[in-house]
Amino acid sequence: MDLNTVLDVRDARRREPWRPGDAWLGGGTYLFSEPQPHLRRLVDLSRTGWEPVVLRQDGALEIAATCTIATLYRFAATLAAPAAPLFTECCRAFLASFKIWNMATVGGNLCNGLPAGPMISLTAALDGRCLLRPQTGAARAVPAADFVTGAGRTVLAEGELLRSVTLPARALRCRTAFRQASLYGLGRSGALVIGALDPADGSLAVTVTAATVRPVRLWFPLVPDAAGLRAALAAAVGDDEWFDDIHGLPEWRRHMAFRFAEEIRRELGRAPQAPRREETPR
């Protein structure tokens, strides 16, 4: 879609004062999907040269805001970590064409703040930290689980930039479980729940997205029983925080979130199965 109110496109490498009507341009898959009558100038991030994905020496994974979904998906195939399959599952939750995969960015998905954003699900579940750069002053770090505050709302201040999301090495070593439900075979996520079991101390994190207006991440020092998990989830999500739109009623989303959370508790609460050894014929 043409944005006929936009009068200028500026390279983000050229520092200029932020002004009303400015917007960061990453992949543009949202910006160009519908009218943006309030915009007058786009600040293009495509030439910043940020490395899309960096596996640091301390084992943490730094994902640039400009990293595309296709790039992250290809990287996940090379990542030797127990949590690697979760990257693939969250990328596939987009249910988008290859054209969207090659343009849509991790940062754009987070900054849109939509409940069904699978990059929100991924980074919140793996205890990510978002690096934010304001127009003036020092950068700040915000937990990915706290970055989205409501449907379409984030902690970003006017002109503030999401630079990257860093996932700690410990989270990448977690055993994970993924559940997702949509009303249609190729529909938007109505409920998406992720579990991450830390092998170092046996703690469990259960993260609910899509069903709720904001990410809800529950942490347990040990795998809880069914009643404990249900009580914690009920206490964490208010009655008005179950999302309601054409892709699912709040009652259905709540039911699926509780069901998936219990399935994940059972799955990750079991000891991992050892690979079956084939006997050599004598």
UniProtKB/TrEMBL annotation:
The GO terms describing molecular function are: FAD binding; oxidoreductase activity
The superkingdom listed in its UniProt entry is: Bacteria
- Pfam families hit by this protein: FAD_binding_5
Q: Which InterPro entries match?
A: Diverse_Substr_Oxidored, FAD-bd_PCMH, FAD-bd_PCMH-like_sf, FAD-bd_PCMH_sub2, Mopterin_DH_FAD-bd
PROSITE patterns given in the database record: FAD_PCMH (PS51387)
SUPFAM superfamilies in UniProt: FAD-binding/transporter-associated domain-like
The record places domain FAD-binding PCMH-type at 1-172
Q: Which PANTHER family match?
A: XANTHINE DEHYDROGENASE FAD-BINDING SUBUNIT XDHB-RELATED, XANTHINE DEHYDROGENASE SUBUNIT C-RELATED
Q: What is this protein called?
A: FAD-binding molybdopterin dehydrogenase
Q: Which organism is it from?
A: Streptomyces alboflavus
